[in-house]
Amino acid sequence: MFEIPLSEYLRANHELMRAARLIDWEGLHDALSIYYSLLGRTGKPIRLMVGIHLLKHRYNCSDERAVEMLHENAYWQCFCGFETLQKEEILEASTLVKFRERIGAEGMLKIEQVLLQAWSEMGLVKTKRVTVDSTSQPKNIAYPTDADLLHRIKEKIVHQIERVRQEVTLRKPFRSYKRTAKRLLFGIKRLCRGNPQKRKETTEALRKIVNRVLHQAAGVVNTLYARGRKDVGRSLNRLVSLGKKITEQTAQVLRGEKPRRRIYSLHEPDVAAIRKGKAHIDCEFGSLVSLVVNEDNLVLSHAEYQENRVDFKTLHDVTTGMEANTGKRPEELGSDRGFSQSLKKQERMRKRLKIQRLAIPRKGKSRHPDHRKSWFRQAQKRRVKIEPIIGHLKHDHRMGRCRYKGKAGDTANVVWATLAWNTKKIVSLHGLGEKKQNLRGQRAAA
Question: Of 119, 256, 354, 358, which sits most exposed with the smallest number of CB within 10 A?
Fold first, then answer.
């Protein structure tokens, strides 16, 4: 009762204090309460968990650093719903991981929907004219090569066998080929750089060694299943099946064939190779992200794909997502030449999406029939503004490298990055609206 409330000695016009007043915390609590149970230990407050994720992506820091800042910064504590300064430990970094696993990608999309609907009711979201563009979101993986994948899966299987030996006695010896495989990998990386034929032969020798390790590991799996130790054998069996896929795709590559569904990472097997035609980065390994941005640079919708999908085929998903978030569809949509199709296909897509006008320039020498009209030229001028927004999302809000796992992790990373960006822009838009209202009041009084 003798503590001073934070609101009394913190600046009311601070960015975080203004942002906290513009967020519908009660709506977020109602939307996410279905993921909490009345039984068992009480979970952390929803405002605390949502708030710290927004701050984490707003200031581009890790889970551990976000928790440290929460304990040190009074503005962060007030933003997350605390009325007085907290001197004890508030939470641990692992709590953020558990919260993301609790609500999943569906719950994070609900957070985005609640906030955009609340801002739309305040009159801060324009939906008449929008711009669409796509970009790649790289995953947190090393650059994939066939030799590295073969060596890593062998090391993982050997390590798993060592863990199995601690629980179960294995009679047959297990040869790991540790020194031989390491020597071959070193030869591929250093000694065979200028000799493609020698590198191909060395990779084939490494593949044969991995096949022998897989054969031994498959025998261990059969032994574990025969003894009734399925709990120990399942994890090893997953590694064996993954190793067989890697050896098969390596054999196809060595024969000059193109694998149908290639694996680029062991811990992220769904990663796709995204080619955007950029000069500085030829290929990125992650997911494709399509974004919808309005006139005020707010991100209204997004869609993620674990494949290198054609840009034009993402329009239906992002416009449907925009309608779910704001309750409205755009009247005018602009994009770059990457979304170009024939005029008949564009017209069918326009009718299917229920949009009045599509401002998509054509590829080649022949220009769009409406390229001289004012609305088409204005849409192309607005389209340029989406490029720096993508740059800010990647460099300032952690969309440049996704560290969350799986397809749900791609969606989660984009949701928190766009919400961090939108929260910053909404504070600016609300401040401009208040200034205009004050000027109108002064003119009326004069």
Answer: 256
